[in-house]
Amino acid sequence: MDAYTSFAEVYDRFMDNIPYKDWCEYVTGLLNEYGVMDGLILDLGCGTGSLTELLADRGYDMIGVDSSGDMLQIAMEKRERSGKDILYLMQDMRELELYGTVRAVISICDCMNYILDYVDMVEVFRLVNNYLDPGGIFIFDLNTIYKYETLMGDSTIAEDREECSFIWDNYYDKESRINEYGLSLFIRQEDDLYRKFTENHYQRAYSLDEVKMAIKEAGMDYVAAFDAFTRSSVTENSERIYIIARECGKE
After folding, report:
1. What sequence ranges are listed for the domain Methyltransferase (predicted)?
2. Mind listing the pLDDT tens digit for each residue in 112-171?
3. Does 3.40.50.150 match the CATH number of domain 6-143+206-246?
4. Residue 22 phi, psi dihedral angles, 5° rounding
């Protein structure tokens, strides 16, 4: 999968409708509820570092990990402008390797949906458990099966802007529960001509029961699941859910 290369250049422009400050407020609230008021936090799948920067503003010491060098380059440019002391690492989350443990790990904005194999998800959870402090908290979100089947599958999303435009075709396979995104980008160059770039992204839908099972297999404790940005229980019509798990096994 060749993803978040060309898209990295314009990612923040197309994501300017995302209320990152509200997301930060929600995540910070969850962290505080589970006793993480400060300390070292890992943002797993940090992308261009928008949420990482906001959490650093809240006083957390931040590490950002992402597999896309292009996205991390933008994150590091933000760090240079803000002066924040954030460590960025380019790693595949399935091969996560830190220098020590952290108080919490967060993974927001569909990152876990990019894990296409259940066995790989268990491995990611196992590595998270390994690098969490005793009793540390793991908070992550997921797009749901309902969202892929009813809202995204076999749909086309397009947006036209002066500097860049995109066409995003979705193809959802109910049997494999894989959603393929065919992304065509048209980015204006210095000569005012537009260059076309294409990328393919793949995400998988997981049921909450599957995620609970993966958490257990990884040796972690499942804590709770919420309909996104609420403290309400997950329903069959939830589009995005937040899941909290706790480190288990260390003394």
Report:
1. 41-136
2. 999 999 999 999 999 999 999 999 999 999 999 999 999 988 889 888 888 888 898 999
3. yes
4. -65, -40
Integer Cα distance of 113 and 15 in angstroms:
18
Which pLDDT tens digit goes with each residue over 36-65? 999 999 999 999 999 999 999 999 999 999
pTM beyond 0.85: the answer is yes
The token pair that represents 229 in the structure block: 């940005």
Do 6-143+206-246 and 147-204 come out as alike in CATH topology? no
Radius of gyration of the chain (CA): 18
Tokens of 35: 């006793």
- Overall CATH class of domain 147-204: mainly beta
Q: How far is CA 96 from CA 19, 37, 69, 103, in A?
A: 28, 24, 15, 16
Residue with tokens 């997921």: 142
Scanning the chain, the segments in alpha helix (DSSP H) are 6-14, 20-33, 50-57, 69-82, 118-131, 145-147, 208-217
